[in-house]
Amino acid sequence: MAYKHILVAVDLSPESDILVEKAVSMARPYNAQISLIHVGINYSDLYTGLVDINMNDMKDRITEDAHIILNKLASNAGYPITHTLSGSGEFGQVLIEAIREFGADLVVCGHHQDFWSKLMSSARQLINNTHVDTLIVPLKDEVITEEKAVEVN
Amino acid sequence: MAYKHILVAVDLSPESDILVEKAVSMARPYNAQISLIHVGINYSDLYTGLVDINMNDMKDRITEDAHIILNKLASNAGYPITHTLSGSGEFGQVLIEAIREFGADLVVCGHHQDFWSKLMSSARQLINNTHVDTLIVPLKDEVITEEKAVEVN
Predict the structure, then answer these.
(1) Which of A25, A124, A135 sits opposite B1 (nearest CB)?
(2) Is the N or C terminus of chain B more exposed, i.e. has fewer CB atoms within 10 Å?
(3) What pLDDT digit, counting tens, does each position of A81-102 carry?
(4) Which residues contact B47 (CB under 8 A, 6 or more apart)?
(5) Which of B30, B124, B135 sits opposite A135 (nearest CB)?
(6) Which residue of B has its CA nearest to A124?
(7) What is the bridge-based pairing of β-strands B106-110 and B133-137?
(8) B15 by DSSP, 3-state: which?
(9) DSSP letter for each residue of A61-116
C-alpha cells in the first residue's frame, strides 16, 4: 500500500523544500521514486495593457530561473530525484499528463501553489481523471495572510 | 519531516480499509501514531416528513453499528491504533477539534466520505484552521459513478 512514485508539484517558492522533504520521508522507507514538476504560469495572462518589455525574452528568463531553482531543489533533496519536469499551460492538465506518463500514485502540492479555487479545481480534475491520491500541504505565508485578513476585519 | 500522528477519517464503507492501510504504510517506518475517527451524519437532516420510527432508537442502533465497524477496522489494521474516535455533528468542525486535541499532523480522508463540495469545504476549513496536511484518497465507487454519468451524457 506504500506509494511507488511520488510527484511533487512545486511553485519554486522557498517553501518548496518542505514539500520535497515530506515526499522524501514517505519515499525513503520503501525506495519509492520521487519526481518534481513545476508548471509555469501563462505569462500573457499577467499583462493587460501595453508593456515596455519583450514578452518572449521575459518568458525565457523566467523559465531559465525556474530551471535553476528546480535543479537546486532536486540536488538538495538528499534523495535521488527520478524526473525533474518543467511544463507550462493549464496546471491541472499538465499535472494529469505527467501523472499518466510517469505513473505517479501520489501528488504532493502546497496550498499557495495557486489560489485556493484553482487548486481545488485542479485537485478535483486530478482525482476524477487520474484517480491519484493528493496530499495538500498548507504553506505558511498563505495561512498567515489569511489570518491577517481576519484580524483587519 | 515524517508524520507523527495520522488521523484517518473513515466513513465505515468497505473502502475504509484502504485508508487505514495507506496510513499504516506511512506510520510504520517512523513508529507514528494512528487514530481513527468517524463522524456520524446528522440524522434529523435525513427525514423531511413524518416517519413511523423512533428516531432516537434508530440513532442509537446506527451509532452502535458504527462502533462495531470502527473497532473491527482498528483490530484489523495490523498496527496499534492510538485512539478510535466517534463523533457526530458538522464533519469539518468535529475533525478540527480532534486534530487539536490529539495533535494530528496529517488527516487522511476518502473521496466519497462525503459529497465533493462538502469534502472540499471541510478540507479548506481544516487547512485554514489547523494548518494540518490533508491526504485525499479517491475511492472506487465514487469515481465509477462519475464515469457512468459521463457515459450516459
Answers:
(1) A25
(2) C
(3) 999 998 888 777 888 899 999 9
(4) B55
(5) B135
(6) B116
(7) parallel
(8) coil
(9) HHHHHHHHHHHHHHHTSSS--SEEEEEES-HHHHHHHHHHHHT-SEEEEEGGGS-H
